[in-house]
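Narrative of activities, Objective 1.

The group set out to show that a structural description can be obtained from nothing but a protein's sequence at a throughput compatible with the screening campaign. Below is one input-output pair from the validation batch, recorded exactly as produced.
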Amino acid sequence: MTQTPWLTPDELRSWVRLIAVVEMLPGALDTQLQRDAGLSHFEYFTLAMLSDAPDRTLRMTELASQTNASLPRLSHVVKRLVARGYVSRCQADDDRRAIEATLTDEGLAKIQESAPGHVRTVRELVVDALTPEQLRAVGEASAAILTRLDPDGRMNASVLDNLER
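Output recorded for this entry:
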């Protein structure tokens, strides 16, 4: 029988702190976006992924992959966004079985209006709490973890590696 390699006190301390951040940060981001923009964090993220897509359009399967959502969850959220006029849905021209989601002009205006408050919150809660070296280390650590959680790069986090520094 193999021995379990229990966490050292330092490893456990780091792990518990990481879990606390993973649990608390989404709620804090959600609270700000709901208060200031009337959007959940997932709705905002969905609109943001569409805003970065060519022609502001993605197949639902690709959008689900980029947002790490199941198709049923994404369909439910996109249905709400369609009702609010932020997204339209239609069959893909090249494959009638595929459904595409497109960010409308109203949706683009909503994401552009919502982004400054969201960025201020991200800066306040995360970026400004860290030194540049700590922030770089968080980015590198997150990249290392993502290679295990998302080895195929479905969420497209690696596209950010090409941004100007």
